[in-house]
Amino acid sequence: MTDNQISNGQISSGSFVRRRTAHFAGQWIAGADHGSRSVRRRLMAVLRMAHRALGMGCKRLGLGTLGVGGSVRSALASSVSLASIVGGLAAIAALSLATPAQAQYQAGGGSATGGNAVAIGNGATTDGNNAVALGTSNSATGDASIAIGYSMSVNGLNAIGIGVFASATGINALAVGGNAHANAGGASAFGVNSTANGANATAIGSTATAGAAATAVGVSSQATGGNSVAVGSVSQASGNSSTALGTGTVANSFGTAVGSTSQATGGNATAMGAGSNASGGNSIALGVVSQATGGNSLAAGNGANASGVSGVAVGNAAKATGNSSTALGVQALAIGDSTVAVGQGAGAGSTTGNASSVAVGVAAGTLVSGGQNTAVGGGVPSVLRGAGSGVTGQRNVALGTGDGAVAYDATLSASAGNLVTGNDNIAIGTNAGIGVAASNTASIGHNAQASQTNAAAIGTGSIASGVNSIYLGARSAAGTGALAQSAIAIGVD
Q1: How far is it, in rounded angstroms, from Cα 299 to Cα 61?
Q2: Cβ-based neighbours of 151, under 8 Å, separated by 6 or more
Q3: 426 domain residue, yes or no
Q4: Gap between the Cα atoms of 379 and 344, Å rounded
Q5: Between vectors from CA 127 to CA 98 and to CA 187, what angle results, nearest 5°?
Q6: Dihedral sign of CA atoms 221, 224, 225, 226 in order
Q7: What is the mean pLDDT of residues 182-194?
Q8: How many alpha carbons lie under 13 Å from residue 445 in its C-beta half-sphere?
Q9: What does the radius of gyration of the chain's CA atoms come to, in whole angstroms?
Q10: Of 294, 220, 281, 232, which Cα lies nearest the Cα of 257?
C-alpha cells in the first residue's frame, strides 16, 4: 500500500489505521493481526498499564515482544521502584506468550509439557499438570495423565492408558486394552493381553493375570498369590489367600476352589464341586468327583474318596482308604488302619488286613480278611450277606441277621458271623455262628451253633459240638446239643 493510493482515495484512512493497529497487535500476540477489534482494544489497555508502571511511553513498548527486553533492561537500570517493575512485567508477561502457559495444546507432531497440556499426534508426549496425549507414539508422564491410543506408556499420578501397546505404571494406574499392562499403584488392566502385577492389581479379561492384592476375572485368568481370587475360564490363583471359583480352577496356599474342574491342591484346601480334588493339607472336598487325598481329609459326596491320614468320606461312592478312616454311606468301605464303615456297602471288598475294623449295616463287614473285626447287622444288596461277612480271623464279634437259611455263596445268603475261620468269635442272632472254624467261640441265638474249642451256644437252635462245650436251651432234636468233650447241656430237648 502506497501514499499515492491513500491520497487518491483508493484506501480510506480508517482502513489504513486499522491495518496499522492490526500489524502492531500482531507483534504482541500471535495471530492478532487477523483477530477481532476487541483483542486489539484489550492489548492497548494492557500496554497503557505497563507504561504507567514502568514510566515509559507506549512507543518505547511498541516494538512488541522483540523490543521488550531492551526497554525493560533500561528501566531496570534507572530508579524505577521494584513494585512498578513487577507490575509492568506482569502486564507484559500476559501478552508475550504466543501460546499461553495455562493452555498448552499442540497437534500434528505433538509435545506439550505441562500446564493444561494436551499433545495430539505423531510423536505426542506432554509431561505433567493436566496432561493428555492422544495419538501415534503417545506417552503422558504425570499429574492427571491419560494417553489414549497406539504406542502408549503413561506413567504416574492419575495415570490411565487405553489402547494398543498400552501400559500405565503407577499411582492410580489403569490400562484398558490392546497389550494392556498397568504394573502397580492402584493398578487395574482390563482387556486383551492384560496383566496388572502388583499393589492393588485387578485384571479382568482375555489373558488376564494380576498379583499383589489380586483379583483376575476371565479367560486365561490367574491372580498369582497376594490376596488372590481368580474367577473364570482357565482360573488359578496360586497361593496366599487364594480362592478360584470356576472353569479350570485350581487354588493353593489358603485354598478353596469352587466349581468346574476344581482342585485346591493342599495348604488349607477346600474344593467344592465338579472335578473337585483338594489334595491333602487341611483338605475337604465336597461334591461330584470329590477326593481329598490325605492330610486332615474329609470328602463328602458323589465320588467321595478321602484316601487316608485322618480319612472320613461320607456318601455316594464313599471310601476313606486307611489311616484314621471312617466312611459312612452308600458304597462305604474305609479299608484298613482304624477303619469303621457304617451303611449300604459298608466294608465292601475289604482287606488291608482290615485293621481295627467295625462295620455296622446293610452289607456290613463283607469280605474283611482279619483285623479287630466287629460287624453289627444288615444284609440284602443282591441278596443278603451282612454282619460279619467273609472275616478270616481275629477278634470277631457279629450281631445279627441272615435267614436266606444259611449258604453264602453260589450266590449269597448267610449272615451274623458268616464265614469266620477262627479267633475270639461270638455271633449273636438269626443265623448266628455260621462258618466259625473255632477258637473261643459262643454263638447265642436263633440258629446258634458254637462248634468247639471253648464252645458255648446258648439258645433256639443251639448245639455246641465238643471240646469245652456247654449248651443251655431250646434246640429241637436232630442229634440234640453239646455233643461231648466237656459237654454240659441244660433245658429243652
Answers
A1: 92
A2: 136, 137, 138, 164, 165
A3: no
A4: 9
A5: 150
A6: negative
A7: 88
A8: 10
A9: 48
A10: 232
- Assess contact for 234 and 221: CB atoms under 8 A: yes
Nearest-angstrom CA–CA distance, 7 and 273: 101
The whole-angstrom separation of Cα 307 and Cα 311 is 6
Task: Find residue 230's DSSP bridge partners.
Answer: 216, 244
Query: Is the distance from CB of 229 to CB of 243 less than 8 angstroms?
Result: yes
Residue 83 within any structural domain of the chain? yes
C-alpha dist (Å) from residue 322 to 120, 223, 300: 71, 36, 16
295: which 3 cell numbers? 492330610
Nearest to 154 by CA among 118, 182, 122, 117: 182
Q: Which domain holds residue 19?
A: 13-98
468-471-472 Cα angle (round to 5): 140
Angle between helices 65-77 and 82-93 (to 10 degrees): 180
The number of CA neighbours under 13 Å toward the Cβ of 248 is 12
Mean pLDDT of 292-314: 87
**What is the arithmetic mean of pLDDT over 299-327?**
87
Asked whether 403 and 414 are in contact (CB, 8 A), the reply is no
Q: What is the three-class DSSP state of 463?
A: coil
> Residue 175 phi/psi, 5° resolution?
-145, 125
- In whole angstroms, what is the distance from residue 185 CA to residue 188 CA? 9
Q: Predicted confidence band at 21 (pLDDT cuts at 50, 70, 90)?
A: low
Read off φ and ψ for residue 290, nearest 5 degrees. -50, 160
- How far apart are the C-alpha atoms of 70 and 79, rounded to whole Å? 16
Share of the chain above pLDDT 90, in %: 4
Q: Rounded mean pLDDT of 265-294? A: 88
Neighbours of 87 (CB within 10 A): 16
Residue 143: C-alpha distances to residues 34, 114, 146, 157, 439 (Å): 35, 9, 9, 5, 92
From CA 97, how far away is CA 83, in angstroms rounded? 22
Enter the C-alpha cell of residue 393: 480271623
Record the pTM.
0.58
Grid cell of 491 as nine digits: 433245658
Residue 281 domain flag: no
Contact by Cβ (8 Å): 19, 32:
no
Which pLDDT score is estimated for 38?
61
For the chain, the average pLDDT equals 72
Residue 235 pLDDT level (bands cut at 50, 70, 90): very high
Closest CA to 67 of 27, 122, 103, 15: 27
What is the domain count for the chain? 1
Residue 63 lies in a domain: yes
Please identify which residue in the block is written with the cell numbers 499383589: 212
Asked if 371 and 389 touch (Cβ cutoff 8 Å), the reply is no
Residue in the block written with cell 451303611: 343
**Chain centroid to CA 50:** 68
